[in-house]
Structure formats: structure tokens, C-alpha cells
Amino acid sequence: MTDLLDDEPGGDVREVRLAEALADRYLSYALSTIVSRSLPDVRDGLKPVHRRLLYAMRQLRLEPNAGFKKSARVVGDVIGQYHPHGDQAIYDALVRLAQTFALRYPLVDGQGNFGNIDGDNAAAMRYTEARLTEVAMTLLEGIDEDAVDFRATYDGEGQEPVVLPAAFPNLLANGAQGIAVGMATSIPPHNVEEICEAALHLIQHPDAAIETLVERMPGPDFPTGGILVEPRENIVEAYRTGRGSFRLRARWEREDLKGGTYQVVVTEVPYQVQKARLVEKIAELLANRKLPALADVRDESTDEVRLVLEPRSRNIAPRVLMESLFKQTDLEVRVGLNMNVLDCETTPRVMDLRQVLQAFLDHRHEVLVRRTRYRLAEIARRLEVLEGYLVAYLNLDEVIRIIREEDEPKVELMRRFELTEVQAEAILNMRLRALRKLEEMKIREEHAKLSEEQADLQALMADESRRWRIVGDQLKAIKKRFGKSEIIGRRRTHMGEVPADIDVPLEAVVEREPITVLCSAKGWIRAMKGHLQDTGDVKYKDGDRHRFAIHAQTTDKLLVFATNGRFYTLGADRLPGGRGFGEPLRLMIDLPNDQDIVTILVHKNGRKLLVAANDGRGFLVGEDDVVAQKKGGKQILTVSGKTEALLCRPVPEGADHLAVAGSNRKLLVFPLEELSEMAKGRGVILQRYKDAELKDAKAFRLEDGLTWPAGAGRTRTETDLRPWLGKRGQAGRLAPNGFPRSNTFGE
């Protein structure tokens, strides 16, 4: 008892750093997720759960010409023998294999409710039934002929295939989706006829260029159709790198109605877009007046998709209507390509198109070699037996005597006729009826036939080029069997032209309404309905105050100029409403915290802007050139060190002079033509300073005079500006009496 107490409890106890223990265990979990759950094998295109489902269904003899069995039976067998995970997860995988809108070539033939394109779930597994399809049978073809390796199941009581023989190019044909730890895969489905064409070309030309393969396999082919509008060079680059995306649009057509009106009918929606949610999204945008060009949307679908879109006016062009919908709804999506798969050594890596096809072809070649070896072994065993039979026929009387009289006939037969144990056992197991002369003739015919087949297979094993021809013939058979079918073989996704840029008026996307844009001193922005003339009653957060008030329309673009010299572009329709305090503008446009807003303008095409920094440098820039396409803005005015952008003013039409005022109260007026127009840069010197900086600048027409505020709502206009006229870059003279103490020209 004392010895037991002296022993350290827990057995082998080791001290390990927590960080190391967590890292080791998380790495094990990550590898398990990658290899055993999330990524497909490049050879058969299946994840373990799908492979186990198909193998279990084959063991249940659920061939295409057999009857259906309850899905619950299939799921139960998979859990009990191969895949110890939740029944719902396995059933969901089974359901997807049967969905014609999810898989280009379904692997399971489902009977019952297996869900629909609207996103409705399948019925419970006790209500649905399933069996294998012809495509699934081609994946399993030869599995009993030592075509692939097997491994022990999770409980060690059975065997399961490591990979399927896969006569069908399933990875590219049906695609794959998966998210692992630190990596993911996304492979869209393709047309099997095109895949076979590309693979056959690769057999003939092992170093074929990606461009050549894409000529035969031009892009994905989705089960739900649609129109692929991605430029060809982008498609080639995606297949070359194994990463990219494809732009996919719904297919639509115009239906003319009475009175010159029309309606648009969507007949195919993009891949993996739930039709019901798509209709809900369009209806929501319609209710929120985000689609002014659209009057109504109806779902008239039966077995075929039919979404009816009614325009608000017959004067709206159908393409303009659809472009507005493509921009805001899932009628246009981007389908990702990330060919991250497990190679033949179960190592995850991103492959290009040629590598994926070559891996499939190498697997088919390996399957052919293994099946040939298996057949040769079978023939050798049968020939051994047949040769024993022939010995028995040649010595029939002696064989009968030995069997009748000898105590150990098997041993005596082996000694007397130099037979193997297999041959002796086969002779002893012969039936009496097999001793007929006719049976001897049949055996000789079978022996000759098998010997001929054996010689042919041995020649095949010695001729690699012939083996590759057979692999090619198998691909041609798959192509003929599945690629030429009118029902499943024809290409469903149309390869469309890249759509030309259509100038969609913002009025077709956003309803035009007057708003007042308010921005506080701390940069909180919001939009009030209507053009407010008095903003004194508008409330701000404690410690904040009013700064900008701009009259605009919901269809306008706003230009935000900041102290870093960058222009940011913001749609007025994106602004928060006026009920609260708004949202921080710097978060909406990625404005750094150490920068401030200089001004906010309503964008007008063709207008020129004057931009300047506090060091007295500036230039003119076309307003169309400052519109930013990214949230991070567009750099226009170059600033550095203590220099920062100070002002941005529109140049009035007809302006011919520029007035510049510095913090030293000196004023300079010079012709506007002396100021350079640039796309971006630091600019030129407007006014020269010593221990001062630029405060304001204003473009005006000389004959109209220079105007500035004079207090109490009054303005003053100075028409005689001769004392301050000069050349750009001069210091100027002191401003006239009455010039604002702020040294600015006001609005």
C-alpha cells in the first residue's frame, strides 16, 4: 500500500510550456481539418465525407438500376462504419450531391424533397431516398480491382478507399468549396466535354500552354447557367496562377407588351444565388426607393426561373435598367477561383489548370497500371487452375484411381503429376459432370483465350505510349457518354462579351431628392431632407458645433478635400439620415486621424478647382480629375513636413484674375492665366511670404471687382484694384482698409 502511495499519480507527467502545447495541438487540429475534412483530393475531386458516402452507397448496392433506399439508412451506415461525425452534417453533404442546381453533374439521384434554388431546405432524411447516378458509378469503376489503396476505418474493423479510381474528371466538372484553417478552396464547375478536350490535348502535348488549354476549356459552366462576362485575358491569368475570379451575370430578355411598353424577364440567375432572397433584396431596394427605374418585381417561376421586372417608364432603356440592378443586387456576382487542393501525397497546394489536369491524368494512368496488374494476377491464377485441369483430363484414369485409393490424394497428385497445391485442390473439387469431353474443349478454349489476353496485357505493361492511348480512349468514352448528352452535356453558361461601360444615370439607381449635408467641427456628417435655409436649430453632440452646410441632391457626388492634399469621393445617397448625430466622416472615407477636412463640395462635371497649401503654392485642376475611385482617396496636392492643404475653391465661369491674401495682410491680384493647370503636384508660388503664410485665394472677374464680407450681413466690392495688380509670386501690398481681420474673402 505504501508503494502505491509513493508512486506519482498520473503516470508519465512532463512539464511543457503552455504556448508550445497549444501550438502543437492546434497544428494537429489544423492538419486534420485540411486533410480530412475541408480540401478535396485533386485526383477524384472529393472530400472524405463525399468519398465515404459514395462508397457506402455502393456497398449498399444502390446502383442506378436498383431501387432507392432511405437517406437515413445511408447516413447511418456512413456514421457507423466510416465517418464518425454528426448525422446532419453528413445528410447535408448527401443532399448537395443530389441537387441539380448545386452540382453540374449530380452524384446522387434523390427521390423526395432535396431543396430548391429558392434556398428551401431538404426534407428530413427519414422522408427522402437516394441512389447513385451513372456519374458516381464511373468514379467507383474498378474499385474492386486493386485500382486504389485502402486504409483502416476509424474503428479498425473495416477498410475504406483512400481515393476513388475516378474515371470522371470530377474536381473540375463539379467544382469544390471548402474552408480549412488558414486556407480555403473554391473551384467552380466546368463542362465535362471541354475538360476532356483539354485533357486529351495535354496527353498529346504535355507542355501545352495555359492559353491553349483555355481555348478548349474556355471557362466555368455553371448548373444554373448565366452569362460569363469576364475578359479572356483575366480567365487565362486565373487558370495560370490558380487564383482569380469570374464575373457572372443573370441571363435576361426583353418582352414587348401592348402600347409600346415592355418588361424584362430573368431566365437564369447566377450560381449559388438563392432566388427567393434575390427577389426579397430587389423588393427591399424598391421599397427604400433605391431603384427609381424599377416599378415592380414578380416571381413567376415554375420548374424554370422566370423573374419579371417592370420598368417605371418605357423611356428607360432595358440595358440601363439592368445595369442599375447588376450594380446593386446579386443578379451579378463574382465567383472565386482558388485551386487549393490535396495532391497525390495529400499535401495542400495551389495548382494551375495544367497541373490539375495532369494530376488527374497521372491518376488515371496509375489506375490503369494497377488494374492491369490485378487482371494479370487473376489470369495467372486461372491459367494455373486450367493447366491442372488439362493434366487431369490427359491422365483421367490415373487421377480417379489416386482419388479413390490413396489416403492423401492431394499429396499424391502433386507428387505424381508435379502439380501445385492450387491445381491439386482444384482437381479434387471438380464435379463429375465436368469430366465430359465438351468441358475439356471449353477449358482448352478458355486457356487459349486467357493466354492471348495475358500476352496482350504484358505487352501493354511494357508500352507506356499505348497505356496513354488507352487513357485517352477512356476520356473519349466519358466525353461521348456525358458530354454529348442533350440534357446534361450541352454548355449552360454562355460565354458573353465583356459588357461595354454604360453610363447609368444615378437617377436610375437613387431617387433624386433635395438634401442639406451637415458636417460638424469634429467631422460628424449627416443629411437632412430638403434645402434648409436656417441650420441654427440643428443639434450637435456636446462639445461639437456646426461647420459645413451644403445644399445637394441624393444623386450628387460629394468631394471632400483634406489637409493631406487628397480628394475623397462620397455618394450623397450613402450619408446617414438626420435623426441622429450622423457618423464620423473620416471612417466613411478612410481619412487619417491626424488630418482634417478642408472643404466639402458638390461635384460638377467640367468645373475647375483652385487648390493651394499654406506655403503659398497652388494650381488649377479639373474637377473631373479629382474624383476618387477608392475609399482611400486620390492624392492631388503634394504636401510635406509642416505644409498642409489650406483651401479648395471652385473657379467661377468667366473668372480672369486671382486674388491672394496672406497672414501678413498683404494682398496680391494677378491674371489667372499665369496660374498653371495640373493633374497633381506641388504647384507654383502664388504669393511670396517672409514669416507669413497663405490665408485665402479667390478667382474673380476683374471688371466685376473683388468682394468680401463687411459685417452685419453686408458685403464690400473693391473695383479699383490697380494698387494690388502684379505678377504671380510677388509679395503684394497691404490690403485696403476694411479688409476682414481674418484675411479671408469669405464664402
From TrEMBL:
It is an enzyme of class 5 (isomerase). One of its GO terms (biological process) is DNA topological change. Its EC number is 5.6.2.2. GO terms for cellular component: chromosome; cytoplasm; DNA topoisomerase type II (double strand cut, ATP-hydrolyzing) complex; extrinsic component of plasma membrane. It holds the Pfam family DNA_topoisoIV. Its main location: membrane. It comes from the Bacteria. It is found in: Cell membrane. Residues 39-502 form the Topo IIA-type catalytic domain. The record marks 126 as: Transition state stabilizer. It is a peripheral membrane protein. GO terms for molecular function: ATP binding; DNA binding; DNA topoisomerase type II (double strand cut, ATP-hydrolyzing) activity. InterPro entries: GyrA/parC_rep, Gyrase/topoIV_suA_C, Topo_IIA-like_dom_sf, Topo_IIA_A/C_ab, Topo_IIA_A_a_sf, Topo_IIA_dom_A, TopoIV_A_Gneg, Type_II_DNA_Topoisomerases. The active site is at residue 127. Keywords: Cell membrane, DNA-binding, Isomerase, Membrane, Topoisomerase. The record marks 47, 83, 85 as: Interaction with DNA. It catalyses: ATP-dependent breakage, passage and rejoining of double-stranded DNA. Heterotetramer composed of ParC and ParE. Belongs to the type II topoisomerase GyrA/ParC subunit family. ParC type 1 subfamily. Topoisomerase IV is essential for chromosome segregation. It relaxes supercoiled DNA. Performs the decatenation events required during the replication of a circular DNA molecule. This is DNA topoisomerase 4 subunit A. It comes from Ferruginivarius sediminum.
